[in-house]
Design brief:
The complex is a heterodimer of chains A (about 400) and B (about 325). Chain A is of the alpha/beta class and about 400 residues long. Helix content of chain A is about 40%, strand content about 20%. The chains are: A alpha/beta (about 400), B mainly alpha (about 325).
Chain lengths: ~400, ~325
């Protein structure tokens, strides 16, 4: 109908507009470039940095929000603790997906913020993103939470992780002594070794005090699937399961749904007792503060991964302060509290071994023969791909 | 504690899932249906859903002191709808400018809406907001599982009534016919003296209001929390669902129930011990979306029921 109208701007107007935008972009960039430097000057305690000693810039990347009642919150609390230390500056970025976006985030932390140490905390950041960046920036040290590091990888990568399955074992004892139906539930994200260790730890803990217990596992398929997590808890309630715990990024949905259905719940990652005042039993919480403080001490003493002063693999359980237990909820009996505390004390002095033979998997195959023990540090446990007897579930999807 | 339901748990979970998980699909698809009937597509409802979820949760939490635990969530629902209308007004204005493509604006609005929601939503991830009270239709039963399944949200009932009402609106009212005229033959509508801009604007704003309420049902009913991953693509799936439902509001209702039930399939089957293929069952809603797209797409014929001006360059 109508002929196409003329483009409403003249060439001159377009050019002027482009120039103005570019100029604005440049000044805006200068503006942001200046601010952190000034802030750093104001904040950085002048006594320490007055002599020109360099501030240690540490970058933290999280896969979700920093206050998700879960994995990211636990790491962010650790980061906040080391931010207090003199001579340390923290840069953080939350909600970074496990895609090439994390590479860009790490790159800008290194190039713009001047970070020399990075803590990309999520499991899926490692391969291939951290590996790629570690080759590109051989002077920057990357510390990853998880068991994916092997010796043939670049030597500026370090790996740290805690044996939180110990905490799950203790939580399992409480669950095993509290359940009335002898059916426990575990909402899990993906069947990776760390998740399987937690499921097995929780089940073995429960079975150690109540051999009739079974654990039903439901895999939701991803770290944050709020609707499926809620559906999983509801389905468990319908099947008569009365204690539920989980390994997902944010246990908030699981704990709240369990409370609404009148079930007991056991937390994970961080303290969720506020979400379930009646049904919350206890919870396996990370305590990253101690390991992060340890790293900062090493780094400030001039030690690096590259010259081998900092161990590439740092692991620990309760004895090194890697985990803690939520305060017991009102539904926990005195007997359960006493037994849990007893085992916790054994973990604290390293006299407790979870994987003591004979242990069968849930297909009846003997995984650890009688008389044999697998210490927490055993490599076989880091690549676990089986579920213990008493778990209803399957690793293969 | 409940007795085990065994295999009965699967149909029950799916039935409950249709009502719990279907509610956001229902509102977003009805909103998109209204929008598309006027000849514009609003892909931005994914962002509207998130903004609605965030604002409902925030308002419910902040106003609990002032108006009490019962009224606060309803205030949240209202604000979610209003927030949706603001986003809808932006989309409605932008997408009707010359040489502007409504799909491209919609994608921008997804990013804008979710950005707004994440930015203002940061302080509300932790707190616990009062939830919309539910109607307990399962009180007759002694089985706790049935009681829990029949805890129905008033929002769901509102949506179920809204679907046939909208059908009647399109068929029998002057306003409904105007919207259809604008969507099917804008030239004819203009010849009648109808302002195409105003009709489309109102349809988009109205549709976004409904999508905002859909967001409120996510954060204040089921699963009942505010997190940044709460929608997991449900807004986009609802757009696909409108095509599946052939722009018919009552069929939108059936399609939403189907999608809601599909979400419950994976966890329910695992809880009774079907341990294989859980990745496939968990992906059921997405597989369903793809299957619908493949079945309904044909290069040879246009879909029956599609508004004539949909996706066409407006003059």
């Amino acid at each position: 109908m109508q002929p196409p109208k003329q483009f409403p701007f003249s060439r001159r107007q377009v050019l002027r507009g482009l120039l103005a935008t570019t100029a604005f972009g440049l000044t805006a960039k200068f503006g942001t470039g200046c601010t952190p430097a000034q802030e750093g000057g104001d904040e950085g305690d002048e006594a320490a940095s007055g002599g020109g000693s360099e501030e240690l810039v540490i970058g933290f990347l999280y896969v979700g929000p920093k206050d998700d009642f879960g994995y990211n919150q636990a790491h962010a609390e650790g980061a906040a603790a080391i931010a207090e230390l003199p001579g340390v500056k923290i840069v953080e970025q939350a909600s970074v997906p496990e895609t090439s976006e994390v590479e860009e985030a790490m790159r800008s932390m290194i190039e713009i913020d001047g970070a020399t140490v990075l803590f990309p905390t999520s499991f899926g950041y490692f391969d291939p993103h951290i590996l790629k960046l570690a080759e590109e920036f051989p002077d920057v040290q990357f510390f990853h939470a998880g068991g994916l590091y092997t010796d043939d990888m670049p030597d500026n990568i370090g790996s740290y992780f805690g044996y939180i399955d110990e905490a799950q074992y203790v939580a399992g004892i409480v669950a095993g002594l509290t359940t009335e139906s002898n059916k426990l539930g575990f909402v899990a994200a993906k069947p990776i070794p760390q998740v399987l260790r937690n499921i097995n730890g929780f089940t073995l803990g429960a079975k150690s005090v109540n051999p009739d217990v079974t654990t039903q596992v439901i895999f939701t398929g991803d770290w944050a699937e709020p609707v499926k997590e809620a559906e999983a808890v509801n389905s468990m309630a319908d099947q008569g399961i009365d204690v539920v715990t989980c390994h997902v990024d944010s246990p908030k949905v699981v704990i709240e749904t369990a409370e609404r259905r009148g079930m007991y719940s056991s937390g994970y990652h961080a303290d969720q007792s506020a979400l379930a005042p009646e049904g919350y039993l206890t919870g396996a919480e990370w305590d990253w503060t101690s390991i992060y403080t340890q790293y900062v001490e090493w780094l400030q003493a001039g030690k690096t991964l590259m010259n081998g002063d900092i161990p590439h693999i740092v692991r620990g359980g309760l004895e090194s302060g890697f985990w803690k237990l939520s305060d017991f909820g009102p539904a926990v009996s005195d007997e359960a509290k006493a037994q849990a505390e007893e085992v916790k004390a054994m973990f604290a002095d390293s006299s407790m071994v979870i994987y003591t033979g004979e242990i069968q998997d849930n297909t009846g195959e003997v995984k650890i023969p009688a008389g044999e023990e697998l210490e927490q540090t055993a490599v076989e446990l880091e690549t676990m791909d089986w579920l213990v007897e008493g778990v209803d579930g399957s690793v293969e999807g | 504690m409940a007795d085990a339901l065994g295999w009965w748990g699967v149909p029950l979970a799916i039935a409950a899932g249709t009502m719990r998980g279907g509610t956001p699909f229902l509102f977003v698809s009805l909103g998109e249906c209204l929008t598309e009937k006027s000849g514009k597509i609003n892909l931005g409802l994914e962002g509207t859903l998130l903004t609605g979820a965030m604002s409902a949760y925030a308002v419910s939490y902040l106003s609990r002191e002032a108006v009490g635990d019962v009224m606060a969530p309803f205030l949240g629902v209202l604000v979610a709808g209003l927030a949706g209308m603001v986003l809808g007004a932006i989309h409605g204005w932008l997408s009707q400018q010359r040489r502007v493509n409504d799909v491209a604006v919609g994608i921008a609005m997804i990013i804008f809406g979710s950005g707004i929601a994440f930015f203002f939503g940061k302080p509300f991830i932790q707190p616990v907001a009062p939830q919309i009270p539910t109607l307990n239709l399962g009180a007759w039963s002694d089985v706790p599982a049935i009681q829990a399944a029949l805890r129905i949200s008033p929002l769901f009932i509102f949506g179920v009534i809204l679907a046939p009402a909208m059908q009647w609106f399109f068929k029998s009212t002057r306003w409904g016919l105007l919207i259809r005229a604008v969507g099917d033959a804008p030239e004819a509508a203009r010849a009648m003296g109808v302002s195409i801009f105003k009709v489309r604007m109102l349809s988009i704003v109205g549709g976004s209001f409904l999508a905002g309420i859909g967001g409120a049902s996510l954060s204040l009913y089921y699963p009942g929390v505010w997190t940044e991953l709460i929608s997991s693509g449900q807004g986009l799936m609802a757009v696909a669902l409108v095509i599946f439902a052939r722009w018919n509001p009552v069929q939108c209702l059936y399609a939403s129930l189907l999608f809601g039930g599909a979400q419950a399939l994976g966890p329910a089957l695992q809880s009774v011990g079907v341990d294989s293929f859980y990745y496939l069952f968990n992906a059921a809603p997405y597989v369903l979306t793809l299957a619908i797209m493949i079945i309904t797409c044909s290069p040879k014929k246009t879909l029956t029921g599609a508004p004539g001006a949909l996706g066409k360059e407006s003059s």
